Amino acid sequence: EVDLEERLGELDLRSDSDVLPPTDSTPEILKRALSGLSARWKNWWIRGILTLAMISVFFLIIYLGSFMLMLLVLSIQVKCYHEIITIGYRVYHSYDLPWFRSLSWYFLLCVNYFFYGETVADYFATFVQRREQLQFLIRYHRFISFALYLTGFCMFVLSLVKKHYRLQFYMFAWTHVTLLITVTQSHLVIQNLFEGMIWFLVPISSVICNDITAYIFGFFFGRTPLIKLSPKKTWEGFIGGFFSTVVFGFIFSYFLAQHQYFVCPVEYNSETNRFVTECEPSELFQMKKYSVPPLLQAVLGWETVNMYPFQMHSIALSTFASLIGPFGGFFASGFKRAFKIKDFADTIPGHGGIMDRFDCQYLMATFVHVYITSFIRGPNPSKLLKQLLILQPEQQLIVYKTLKSHLVEKGILQPSLRG
Amino acid sequence: NLQESESENKLDGETASDSESKSEFGGSPSVPTSDDTPEVLNRALSNLSSRWKNWWVRGILTLAMITFFFIIIYLGPMVLMMIVMCVQIKCFHEIITIGYNVYHSYDLPWFRTLSWYFLLCVNYFFYGETVTDYFFTLVQREEPLRILSKYHRFISFTLYLTGFCMFVLSLVKKHYRLQFYMFGWTHVTLLIVVTQSHLIIHNLFEGMIWFIVPISCVICNDIMAYMFGFFFGRTPLIKLSPKKTWEGFIGGFFATVLFGLLLSYVMSGYRCFTCPVEFNNDTNSFTVDCEPSELFQLQEYNIPLVLQSVVGWKTVRMYPFQIHSIALSTFASLIGPFGGFFASGFKRAFKIKDFANTIPGHGGIMDRFDCQYLMATFVNVYIASFIRGPNPSKLIQQFLTLRPDQQLHIFNTLKAHLVDKGMLGSLEDA
Prior knowledge:
The complex is a heterodimer of chains A (419) and B (430). Chain A is mainly alpha-helical. Helix content of chain A is 70%, strand content 5%.
């Protein structure tokens, strides 16, 4: 009987050799093309080419529309989850744990089912109203999700094996924390997306821009180290990245705010069975005259400027992306050092795993969501409608009368004989 | 480099547990069980044999806790809320302390402060959401409260982020893994302990009966399963808890269902238990006064033919709530114990006998509440799914904050729906 503690103890003694040797997953083509260059420039070129490739894929998906974006977000979420869970397996040598892989994927499925039911179902309200079985699923959604989760919980308890208790509890906790980080926030990303593609694009681009410009500023001007966790980061890079990102966000929002495609909330049209983005742009996206503060007047030479109100919000988003976003990166760096891994995985040559690219995005997604709900929009109309339709008929009638009198008061509804 | 990693190994929890592996479970446990029993009890019971003494201590403490429970119920919802809060803090403290002991992380910089800070943040978030819902008019009156409530989510998020950034800044070179473990440990504990204590408070506001019946069913199941096991127990139930038996499990199930039916019958007659707790703006206190809903009005039920011959009645007068109590008791007896098995597995995994030594003969607060956690979530989901729908006045409030075009859209959809159902028609002027 190998005692578990001894196994864990040995794990740390040979932890140095446990570090994954960096496997070179660079495609053959690239290698041959760049074989002439020195190692440092070669690395730079690989990173550069892959960066451009990822940005192109990003633009392509945007062009393809909201549905594809949702699928993309879902795929990334699943891949990130897989990467983090795999790290857990390796750390704890728990490949041979009974049931554990199935349970992790099962919990992922449950939590996704719960979130998709809560958020996406709201948007498909008219679609759902027509089908009886879907109505049942929606009405008792929370209960069904909870029952599914409980099944997983009971399976976990029944799967506890005498020699592996601690390991199993660790993996259980690891799974839950991972779910909390990756799944909840990918759903916040999707909710931001439904608010309007601009709320999805500007934050993500700001984080990417901050990454790139901080790197470039650090490359050329970097001298003072920023934090012990990430020795490559410098204060010059940090501050330079901050200013560039704010300017970038400002300009980028200006361009995006002009197109209905980006600005309008995504809606599902039940007749055409597609997502449409068509609306009367809200106040945020209508040009306004702003007086330039006297301080800047001297610098710029203008007295007023035409801007979209959204650009002011973009300053807040860019500021967060530059100042707080990096903490997500430091967290991930600390995590990698704690578990002695170089990268989360080797999916992207030169960059590491998907998690490596998305570590800063997670805090951003939550921030944007909280920002929108606090400062931009009120309650969600589709969700409100759904709740109204669940009420008892007598309650609905009372609500109807109250609403009608309110609307007539405000002059929104004209009082007429036949309504 | 190798030296650094070796020194990290020495401080890491894993290698320290090598010394624990030398001690067998139950032989020399890592947390010495101190004898907490008060001197008085010790002297009074000094003559009895050890087994009976233990039984008496447990029995007396059980009665003490049940009495305490009744007193608190008598004192009202406000005191109950405070008790739930205290229990939550104590459970959090117990679990975090176990984490400290497992990882020998007393000397981690900042960590105690951060754990308590996160507890504060999450509580602030949940209390803010609850308070905003139930104290709506009060909040709207006071200016500072109104601002706090309007930007509540943003403020909570900012507070949490501050804690997150402090954590990142507190990472120290040799202790990374330990700090991440404790971070994960804290968050899982918060998820379990804090969210569910708030669900309990939500249940409480729905009506005290939704708080008392589930908790009593779990306690009853505990006691009944123990007694049935004591007198009739033969077949072991699960390897995790060798003391549990199938006889105890099944006997406890039937006893709990019966107990739930009887308790609900008694409680449904009193308005103070069945009415939702509301905050009265004029008297600035909680009131439980209302027209009892359908659930709490006696109805005639036909007894199924099977039972008619046994019981001898054709119809019976029951509260509809009693039917729901069967569902609650069933859950408490069949699934609730899994919470207990989970806690047993946890204790075995970390080689501790009890969560703490707060209650003599019983262990820590967590030991008493481990089965309650799943129950609280179940009751909350049950109420949300089967009992109450959304709150109409709340919906109207939300409606009033929408834009005019959105309001019009919703109004028209609702109108079309009502016309469809035949509730409107030629009553356009109504």
